[in-house]
Write a structure and sequence with these properties.
The complex is a heterodimer of chains A (about 120) and B (about 425). Chain A is an alpha+beta fold. Chain A has one domain (about 1-115): Dynein light chain 2a, cytoplasmic (Beta-Lactamase). Helices cover about 40% and strands about 30% of the residues of chain A. Chain A has helices spanning about 1-10, 40-60, 95-115, and strands spanning about 15-20, 25-30, 65-70, 75-80, 85-90. The longest helix of chain A is centred in the middle third of the chain and has 20 residues, at about 40-60. Chain A is globular, with a radius of gyration of 13 Å. Chain B has a domain at about 115-125 and about 135-410: Dynein light chain 2a, cytoplasmic (Beta-Lactamase). Chain B is built from 6 helices and 11 strands. Chain B has a 6-stranded antiparallel beta sheet with strand order 1-6-2-3-4-5. The chains are: A alpha+beta (about 120), B alpha+beta (about 425). Chains A and B meet through α2 and β3 of A and α5 and β9 of B.
């Protein structure tokens, strides 16, 4: 079921991977297209989560927030779902961020319900 | 009030009232607003609100009062309805507004006079609007030449944004204490990025100022509303080499880093979150940047003609930018704006460290840019020359525009002017 929802993201143009991830970097569910989740990638995700959490802590009582990280060819979009769960979308720079955001809004409740 | 022409509906949406100002620069038509059981509208002609109206039961609000009411809601539901010139003319007639400059359907990208509306306190040129009840401040529409990054430093954030920028030197005018209703932010943040306005806040009224300048509005009792801090930006024509920041009577010197606590309005302080710090130190950055309302924190170089600082100043002056920092691993090089520099840079460093850890792991190339969305706004981090740039923005900022500027900065080094 979770995969079905994640697939809604993956079918968006140039989205390469969608992951539900814990704040410690552990992957709950993932779906990918044209990329591999190797150890290096897992380490990167873990770093991102740890860094984001540390930043959130710096903000004090601020709730979890969205992080958009851009590289020359890819970007990452990390959005909070529920407590320690986050949704990480990996897409090429040609992907439509607005569309991804919209899909997040549409499916957030369903995702949260499944976690 | 008679029924206005229907117009062509562009769809319903929900947003703060300030959104309408900032996103209707080229819009001609009516914005139909529904708040609870009441309905109203804003008649707009190319970013220039011509008439505000709201009716709830038997209560009718017009002009200022209606606008204040719209602004008092963090989010309103509205429908943008596009008008043809004829429909606009008819609507203006219904609202008793004289149509001095007839609308031409197709205009060049940067049309002549009539581009936008704001409500300046004192303008000599009287707008071509027969103002209804209490609405005495439709100002002179002005041309803003495209390449000139002129800035409205007024806050844009309608919601509970803690980094709201509040001018530190306002003439003590009780009317400033009316936070909810006086916003006329018309920066085309999204619709037409290159066009910005300059808020010119001169303490001395211009000769021949209109009778309905700022003081005349002091009759409106100040209402302490926590959400918004609005002001009366004043659009002006800006010649390309001159970059105008908020003008102050007390900041004439060429370089002034001293902390001046200018006269605050006698309004009650807005309820702000803890992190809200106001800009107090005017830093004047040399000829291209005559005066600025910003705070220099860390090793502040006395900036003469340093193009880097000029660029930073220009970015800082864009609408919606709350604070900006240039930093590296060791120190903060430049800090301007309205935030705690230490916290800002600490957070930026943390996230940057994360990005740096990620880049060697993937073959995605070097880190380009990062945006962290927090309740108060956005934090944007990007490489800048040999350092990194950290921007704090309000929520209403056009991130796409900022990204484009950052990309330009990264590609061209230090451009002469931000677009």
């Amino acid at each position: 079921m979770l995969k079905n929802i994640l697939n809604k993201f993956l079918i968006l143009h140039d989205v390469r991977g969608v992951i539900v991830v814990r704040d410690d970097g552990g992957i709950v569910e993932s779906i990918k297209s044209g990329m591999e989740y190797d150890d290096a990638f897992m380490a990167a995700v873990s770093n991102l989560m740890v860094g984001s959490k540390a930043t959130a802590d710096t903000f004090g009582n601020s709730p979890a927030f969205m992080v958009f990280m851009e590289f020359p060819d890819y970007f990452l979009l990390l959005a909070p779902l529920k407590e320690e769960f986050f949704l990480l979308v990996i897409a090429q720079n040609t992907a439509n961020i607005g569309q991804i955001n919209q899909e997040m809004k549409k499916n957030r409740e369903d995702l949260v319900a499944l976690l | 009030m008679k029924e206005l022409p229907e117009g062509k509906s562009l769809g319903w949406m929900q947003a703060p009232a300030s959104w309408i100002d900032s996103h209707t620069v080229r819009f001609i038509g009516v914005v139909r607003i529904v708040i609870q059981d009441g309905e109203g509208f804003i008649l707009i002609k190319k970013g220039k609100p011509l008439f505000h109206y709201f009716k709830h039961g038997t209560i009718e609000l017009k002009g200022h009062t209606a606008l204040d009411y719209f602004n008092s809601h963090p989010v309103i539901e509205f429908n943008l309805c596009k008008y043809t010139p004829d429909e606009l003319a008819w609507a203006m007639k219904l609202c008793n507004i004289e149509d001095h400059d007839r609308v031409v359907p197709q205009e060049p990208a940067f049309p002549g006079p009539g581009a936008r509306e704001l409500s300046p306190p004192a303008r000599t040129a009287v707008p071509p609007v027969a103002k209804p009840f209490q609405d005495k401040r439709i100002p002179e529409p002005v041309v803003v030449s495209p390449p000139v990054p002129t800035v409205n430093k007024g806050p844009v954030v309608p919601g509970p944004v803690s980094w709201e920028h509040t001018p530190s030197s306002r003439p003590s005018n009780p009317l400033d204490a009316k936070p909810a209703g006086d916003k006329r932010s018309t920066d085309p943040v999204v619709v037409s990025p290159p066009v910005h306005t300059v808020e010119q806040r001169s303490a001395v009224p211009e000769p021949g100022a209109r009778e309905h300048n700022q003081p005349s509005r002091a009759v409106v009792p100040p209402v302490a509303k926590p959400v918004q801090d609005k002001r009366f930006p004043n659009p002006v024509v800006v010649s390309p080499p001159v970059h105008t920041f908020e003008e102050r009577a007390a900041a004439p010197g060429p370089v002034s880093v001293e902390h001046t606590q200018p006269s605050r309005p006698s309004n009650p302080p807005d309820a702000k979150p803890a992190g809200d710090k106001r800009i107090t130190d005017p830093v004047v950055v040399s000829p291209p940047v005559p005066t600025g309302d910003k705070r220099a924190v860390v090793p502040q170089p006395v900036v003469g003609d340093d193009p880097g600082v000029t660029i930073i100043s220009q970015i800082m002056d864009m609408n919606g930018i709350v604070a900006i920092a240039v930093f590296n691993d060791n120190r903060t090089v430049i800090m301007m704006g309205d935030a705690d520099s230490e916290v800002l840079v600490t957070i930026a460093r943390k996230m940057l460290e994360t990005a740096k850890k990620m880049t060697p792991l993937r073959t995605w190339g070097p880190f380009v840019h990062m945006t962290i969305q927090i309740p108060a706004g956005n934090m944007i981090i990007a490489p800048y020359q040999d350092n990194y740039l950290c921007l704090l923005t309000t929520r209403t900022i056009n991130i796409g525009h900022i990204r484009r500027i950052l990309r330009d900065l990264q590609q061209k080094g230090t451009p002469q002017r931000v677009a």
